[in-house]
Amino acid sequence: MAKLEALASITRLSDHVVRVLGQNPGKFTLQGTNTYIIGRQNTYTLIDTGEGKEEYIPVLASALRDIAKPSAPTDPDVSDIILSHKHGDHIGGLPSVLALLRQLWEERNISKYFPLATEATLSSTPTIPSSLQVLHTPGHTADSIAIYVPSDDALYTADTVLGQGTAVFEDLASLISSLHKMHDFAESKGQKETKLYPGHGPVVEEGRELIEMYIQHRFEREEQIVRVLGSEEGSKVDPWTTWSIVTKIYAPYPRNLWLPAAHSINLHLKKLEKDGRVKHVGGEGIDSQWVLVKI
């Protein structure tokens, strides 16, 4: 992986958007989970809440105190919280964020409170601020969404498209469909380019181009798998397993990448099976066995 671009804990991206890092850098979270404060003045919308790191709360509090511009003393800082998908690094911080907001409101003698975070709260149908537009973009997870921020002509892509590297996914067919949906949506706005505000990594200025690269990357990997199964060498291996395909395709890469890659390859194979191009003939997991369907 390329060296990660350093990101500040708090970054004003525009007059309407401030990015706050979740203070949870890691192998899969890159510089950390990006959370976004949306709005020009109170009340704001917060997109995602980090994973619940104690270090995140004072950073978020500092960001809110710096930008808060209530038009009335009783205006809360944040009126809405949108959670992009079910993964813990995006929703785990919700209880501590709600506690922070209660504290900030008490400081200004505001009596209105968010309800306590419960399972029902997380699964209920959301009410989205009219200034934002939501797209259902399953693939990374079944419940993943993207959020269009008109003021910035920017699309918050959560973990479907990252600011650096490629994303993991649960369902490849759904992911590709969602990538096309986001690309077509961005194109429909008629702008030369649509920015991406990702769930991890830096802002992407040329959003449509990156989405196209994601689609092309998946198509190329799919064709690579088909070529392996249909090669002369492939005819001598009866049948190929997910693991033997991985060892062939990822031979130039470090071995510690092979096992994580096997999950992606398996999902590619399942999509190819739905498309009628390969057939599963036995085994499970990395030992799943596959043959090319002769047309």
TrEMBL record:
GO terms for molecular function: hydrolase activity; metal ion binding. GO terms for biological process: secondary metabolite biosynthetic process. Residues 32-200 form the Metallo-beta-lactamase domain. The keyword Metal-binding applies. Signal peptide: none annotated. CDD domains: LACTB2-like_MBL-fold (cd07722). InterPro entries: LACTB2-like_MBL-fold, LACTB2_WH, Metallo-B-lactamas, RibonucZ/Hydroxyglut_hydro, Sec-metab_biosynth-thioest, WH-like_DNA-bd_sf. Keywords: Hydrolase, Metal-binding, Zinc. SMART domains: Lactamase_B. Belongs to the metallo-beta-lactamase superfamily. Glyoxalase II family. PANTHER family: ENDORIBONUCLEASE LACTB2. This is Metallo-beta-lactamase domain-containing protein. It comes from Piloderma croceum (strain F 1598).
